[in-house]
């Protein structure tokens, strides 16, 4: 099971990095959110998947699952939710202001602007 | 157990929340934020006193004993940095009363600054790796908002780069936390240190430490600094002063903390890597500072170069070098804030960021000129000022352990920074007075007054370095001997 998840993490990482390397702002945002998913899966896998029952007292279970990674993932998901939301809003505002979502064109415009001011 | 440990984090957090509700009442906002910042300074001083007399203070959150719960640890190193951060932020707030336009003030500027301050203090005080990540994110989220506040085209462009690079490094941070948890089963810094000391720092753990090195280097601007000069130049002076003084130093603190407390067993690999990166940073940052003609970019490269310099001390990691690093870090926070604030006044006076279009500023605001010169000399490390003791100790430490290349890089850096800052002084302050801003700018004396406390500290820190030394030595003793830190965390 861990091997399958590890492969999935690898695929998610590859797709995320591919998307970040493209020029479209929206794809970049999607890439970052895929990368964070990959990392959350990684965090869960590193603590071993399903090794016992739920970590509750009074069940008489021999083995219990480590609850900490899940708490960490939950925190991380919330943080990344906030950042992705902010990033999306910022991209939209940047599109309104700069009239493009293409990173390359944003940069060429800035160098043209700089050339004029010199 | 000492509940005061959490105060430097709680005070700004509560203030930030209160200020959200008062965003239309500017006067009230200013007063509350200033009072809160001063309270924060008092709390830090109180904590400093306690740490010096009673040793390291810890606080187990919700009463969960380490390593199960989150622990806050106030050792001398952290407390000194919290104190410096709270002083810098008070002065930047005072400056922003005049130096920031009303539009920004209305749009939650003060709350964002306080949220950032809570994140910064939290990062210094936390004793848990995941909590460090959370505090980093708190700080970065507010910095994203601060950097784009105002919404000019340039700010949008720079913020997009800034967010992307930081989201990437945060992702890597979580990945390295996952690997470390998988390998050691703990995230408490002291516990990590114990476990790795017991089992030995094997290859995989060294690899994870290299991953953490990348993460913190991106945040600190050590070698991976390509994003820094542009994005620190985009917002107004009060904000870039906060960024230049606090954000990169938090990354630097995290580097020093992890590589002296946890990953110190394979120094020939990790510290060698840090040393190489530091020398590269110094050379690139130095040349960057020398080659630029834009004031903010010169200062941005100055921030990078001094990060490189502090990392030299981490690469050497003997007693003198680490003592010097603590001293220099405190000095650097204050002097970089001062430089950015003064540069902000300079830009407002002349109406341009390019030094070759300025000239003769000394004739109409001499005080600004002389303060800028003194601040520049402090950066370079001229004896009576605060840059000198730290620099001396770091170079002395590197000579002691026979790392001549590192000492040479430190001296080279000094010359380059001197050249870059004196170039600003000569081009902008000397010469014929050039065109001034059309509407006469009258804020200069008040803005100078708000940056005067930082100036005073630089001079006092240099002149009374001997009196300040015991605190710095207490701080570096923990860095040299990790067992002091571990015992303090597990004593109860």
Description:
The complex is a heterodimer of chains A (118) and B (492). Chain A is mainly α and 118 residues long. Chain A is built from four helices and no strands. Chain A has one domain: Helix Hairpins (Orthogonal Bundle). Chain A is elongated. The termini of chain A are far apart. Chain B is mainly α and 492 residues long. Helices cover 78% and strands 2% of the residues of chain B. Chain B has 21 helices and two strands. The model of chain B has no long low-confidence stretch (mean pLDDT 91). The interface between A and B is medium-sized, with 34 and 29 residues.
Mean pLDDT across all amino acids of chain B: 91
Percent range for β-strand residues of chain A? under 5%
Stated plainly, the CATH topology of chain A is called: Helix Hairpins
The separation of the N and C termini of chain B measures 8 Å
Question: How would a textbook summarize the main sheet of chain B?
Answer: 2 strands, antiparallel
SSE-based structural type of chain B: mainly alpha
Low-pLDDT windows of residues of chain B:
none
What would the keywords be for this entry?
heterodimer, A: 118 residues, mainly alpha, Helix Hairpins, 4 helices, B: 492 residues, two-stranded antiparallel sheet
Chart the SSEs and their pairings.
The complex is a heterodimer of chains A (118) and B (492).
Chain A: H1 2-20, H2 25-46, H3 68-98, H4 103-117
Helix pairs in contact in A: 1-2, 2-3
Chain B: H1 7-21, H2 26-54, E1 57-60, E2 71-74, H3 76-99, H4 102-106, H5 109-125, H6 129-148, H7 153-184, H8 189-199, H9 203-220, H10 228-233, H11 237-261, H12 267-291, H13 295-316, H14 319-350, H15 361-364, H16 366-380, H17 387-400, H18 404-429, H19 444-463, H20 465-480, H21 482-490
Helix pairs in contact in B: 1-2, 1-5, 2-3, 3-5, 3-11, 3-14, 3-19, 3-20, 5-6, 5-11, 6-7, 6-11, 7-9, 8-21, 9-11, 11-13, 11-14, 12-13, 12-18, 13-14, 13-17, 13-18, 14-16, 14-17, 14-19, 14-20, 16-18, 16-19, 17-18, 20-21
């Amino acid at each position: 099971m861990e091997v399958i998840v590890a492969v999935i993490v690898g695929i998610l990482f590859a797709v995320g990095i591919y998307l970040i390397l493209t020029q479209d702002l929206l794809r970049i945002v999607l890439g970052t959110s895929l990368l964070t998913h990959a990392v959350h899966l990684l965090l869960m896998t590193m603590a071993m998947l399903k090794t016992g029952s739920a970590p509750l007292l009074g069940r008489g279970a021999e083995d219990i699952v480590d609850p900490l990674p899940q708490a960490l993932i939950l925190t991380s998901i919330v943080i990344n939710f906030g950042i992705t939301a902010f990033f999306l809003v910022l991209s939209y505002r940047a599109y309104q202001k700069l009239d493009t979502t293409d990173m390359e064109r944003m940069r060429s415009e800035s160098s043209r602007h700089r050339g004029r001011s010199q | 157990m000492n509940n005061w440990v959490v105060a430097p984090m709680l005070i700004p957090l509560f203030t930030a929340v209160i200020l959200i509700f008062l965003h239309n009442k500017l006067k009230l906002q200013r007063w509350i934020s200033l009072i809160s910042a001063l309270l924060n300074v008092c709390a830090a001083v109180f904590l400093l006193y306690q740490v010096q007399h009673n040793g390291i203070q810890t606080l187990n959150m919700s009463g969960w004993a380490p390593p199960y719960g989150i622990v806050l640890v106030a050792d001398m190193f952290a407390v000194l940095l919290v104190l410096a951060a709270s002083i810098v932020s008070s002065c930047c707030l005072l400056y922003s009363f005049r130096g920031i336009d009303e539009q920004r003030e209305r749009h939650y500027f003060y709350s964002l600054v306080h949220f950032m301050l809570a994140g910064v203090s939290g990062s210094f005080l936390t004793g848990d790796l995941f909590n460090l990540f959370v505090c980093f994110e708190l700080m970065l989220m507010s910095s994203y908002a601060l950097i784009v506040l105002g919404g000019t085209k340039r700010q949008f462009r720079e913020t997009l780069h800034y967010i992307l690079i930081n989201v990437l490094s945060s992702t890597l941070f979580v990945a390295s936390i996952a690997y470390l948890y998988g390998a050691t089963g703990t995230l408490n810094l002291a516990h990590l240190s114990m476990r790795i000391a017991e089992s030995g720092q094997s290859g995989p753990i060294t690899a994870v430490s290299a991953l953490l090195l990348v993460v913190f280097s991106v945040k600190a601007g050590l070698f991976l600094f390509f994003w820094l000069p542009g994005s620190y130049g985009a917002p107004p002076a009060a904000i870039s002063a906060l960024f230049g003084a606090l954000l990169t130093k938090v990354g630097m603190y995290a580097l020093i903390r992890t590589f002296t407390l946890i990953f110190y067993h394979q120094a020939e690999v990790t510290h060698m890597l840090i040393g190489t990166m530091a020398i590269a940073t110094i050379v690139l940052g130095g040349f960057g500072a020398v080659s630029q003609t834009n004031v903010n970019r010169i200062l941005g490269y100055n921030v990078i170069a001094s990060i490189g310099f502090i990392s030299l001390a981490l690469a050497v990691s003997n007693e003198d070098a680490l003592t010097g690093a603590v001293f220099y870090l405190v000095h650097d926070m204050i002097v970089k804030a001062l430089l950015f604030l003064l540069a902000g006044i300079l830009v407002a006076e002349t109406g341009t960021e390019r030094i070759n279009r300025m000239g003769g500023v000394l004739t109409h605001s001499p005080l600004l000129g002389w303060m800028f010169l003194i601040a520049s000399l402090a950066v370079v490390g001229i004896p009576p000022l605060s840059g000198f003791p730290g620099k001396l100790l770091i170079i002395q430490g590197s000579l002691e352990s026979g790392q001549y290349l590192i000492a040479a890089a430190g001296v080279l850096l000094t010359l380059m920074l001197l050249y870059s800052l004196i170039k600003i002084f000569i081009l902008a302050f000397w010469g014929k007075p050039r065109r001034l801003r059309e509407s006469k700018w009258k804020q200069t004396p008040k803005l100078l007054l708000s940056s005067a406390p930082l100036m005073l500290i630089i001079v006092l820190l240099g002149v009374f370095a001997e009196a300040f030394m015991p605190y710095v030595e207490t701080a570096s003793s923990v860095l040299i001997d990790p067992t002091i830190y571990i015992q303090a965390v597990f004593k109860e």
